[in-house]
Amino acid sequence: MKHQKGIARRAFIKKSAGTAAGLSLLSTLAQAGMVQVVRTDNELSVVESSQTFPEGLKKVALIANIYRNSAHADVIATKLFAGIPTDDGMVTPEVQIVSVWIDQIGENDTGVRIAKMNNATLYPTIAEALTMGGDKLAVDAVIYVGEHGEYPYSRYGVKMYPRMNYLEQIFRVFDASNKSVPLFTDKHLAYSWLDSKWVYDRGQELKVPMMAGSSLPYCWRDPMLVHPVGTKITEAVGIGYASLDAYGFHVMEILQCMVERRAGGETGVASVQGVLGDSVWKAIDAGKISKELVEAACNRIKGRAEGNMRDIVKKPKAVIIRYNDGTKGAILMLDELVKEGWAYAAKADGKTVSTEFVLDHSMSYSHFSYLTLNIQKFLVSGKPQGPVERTLLTSGMIDMGIRSSVDGEQVIKTPFLNIKYNVKGIEPIIPKAPRPTGQSVGPWPPEGYEFIIPDRFKK
Predict the structure, then answer these.
(1) Domain assignment present for 272
(2) Are residues 229 and 204 located together in one domain of the fold?
(3) Is residue 377 part of a domain?
(4) CA 250 to chain centre
(5) Residue in 156, 314, 162, 165 with CA at minimum distance from that of residue 245
(6) Could you report the per-residue pLDDT of 201-240, keeping only the tens digit for each?
């Protein structure tokens, strides 16, 4: 009889899922930990659950555009579910993802399965993921991974990720609950400067502890180079490849995480100019971008192409930055020359210094391990491992750089980027070795997670 009652209850829940009353019931049951709500493209499905979590761990809501093999949600959140591979071994997570919302669930989704494996409930709305089906905020922290997924492109060729839209929904729950908790948001604050500024201002109004940005500031450096706070930096460049939209932001974060440590702290940006093709070489010839620094940075990249830069690179792209204190900065995308390489060089205390920013290209994408360690420390402590003002500034700089490059390469005056901050006292977790080693390069994934192996690694 008890078994028959269980079957009847499941049938009733499934039948009711599409009704208003049914959705209300699902919220109540999910809050009580009796069911998991799984949203696919066309319908809600429900599985019975008994949510139990380790005592003392911070409860985290994961909000993601998409969760599939190698997407940012996978290379961040899966580590918080399964363990964090580092040079020094596997690190046991100190937080527990208890609720999940995924915007786009397709045939290649892995997030639904991983959530089920780890007893995390999937909710049909962002608000319900944060409230765990109740009326008020019910988690201790939030991670929003707003990267990847199918979204339209703007007139500037920028993918219009709905970061502001989804962060606004998170902020609404904070506001209605009269409580804010640590919030990490991946990469840009938003695809446009105006949206980014709104996100920052709303977060400030609600007193939200926020951290954001790229994985690049937390990856390996060969050789190790960390400017002491107070270093006199007169000019710096960051080097990368591919589009200004998706990857230019990473290079901007490389540049900014280094130059923000200069004497006087960050003073903001006076102007931005985007240049393309032959205009890049002309900017170098005119001294707007230091040829010495570009060559010093590129020469650090192991695996860079041999030969003359101008013969090798077909469509160079650059963004030239002038800081309010007179510091000169630039990022360059030199695809064929650097291949998949990233680098930095600067005039620091009168000397030329340079380093390669090294990523892990194994199955574990362990540069995201170090980002994840910093996210975790932030979620536990409430103290950001990198200032959100950095990402506000880089979001604005890359937006203006793209606009300039499309609109005739004009210099854009940027008094709205008069963003001042100081990183004194902030000590992020970064690898000590120059390149990935130990558990960072495998084996990965852990037992039971073999289905997350990207196709390119399958034999």
Answers:
(1) yes
(2) no
(3) no
(4) 9
(5) 156
(6) 999 999 999 999 999 999 999 999 999 999 999 999 999 9
Residues 6+ apart with CB under 8 A from 363: 442, 444, 445, 453, 454, 457
Among candidate residues 60, 45, 63, the one with its CA nearest the CA of residue 104: 63
Q: Report the CATH number at residue 263.
A: 3.30.360
- What pTM was estimated for this model as a whole? 0.88
Token pair for 457: 């690694």
- Taking Cα atoms as reference points, which of 166, 172, 142 lies closest to residue 58? 142
CA neighbor of 216 nearest in space, from 184, 243, 248, 191: 248
Band of pLDDT at residue 56, cut at 50, 70 and 90 = confident
202 inside domain: yes
Q: Give the residues across from 170 on adjacent strands.
A: none
46 pLDDT higher than 60: no
pLDDT digits (tens, 9 = 90+) for 85-126: 999 999 999 999 999 999 999 999 999 999 999 999 999 999
**7 occurs within a structural domain:** no
pLDDT for 53 equals 57
Q: For residue 350, what are its two tokens?
A: 């009168």
Contact predicate 404/272, CB 8 Å: yes
Contact present, 217 and 386 (Cβ < 8 Å): yes
**Number of domains composing the chain:** 2
Answer whether residue 276 shows pLDDT above 60.
yes
For residues 330 and 288, give the distance between their C-alpha atoms in angstroms, rounded to a whole number: 9
Instruction: Based on the fold, state whether residues 188 and 308 are members of the same structural domain.
Output: no
At 156-209, the pLDDT tens digits run 999 999 999 999 999 999 999 999 999 999 999 999 999 999 999 999 999 999
Compute the distance between CA of residue 388 and CA of residue 326 in angstroms, rounded to an integer. Answer: 23
C-beta of residue 407 within 8 angstroms of C-beta of residue 61: no
The answer to whether 213 and 312 have CB atoms below 8 angstroms apart is: no
The per-residue pLDDT for 455 is 75
Residue corresponding to tokens 């360059």: 332
Q: Are 203 and 297 in contact (CB under 8 A)?
A: no
Domain extent for 341: 217-364+389-417
What are the E-state strand segments in 115-251? 121-122, 141-145, 183-186, 210-213, 220-222, 233-240
Sole residue written with tokens 């690049």: 216
Helix (H/G/I), strand (E/B), else coil: 125: coil
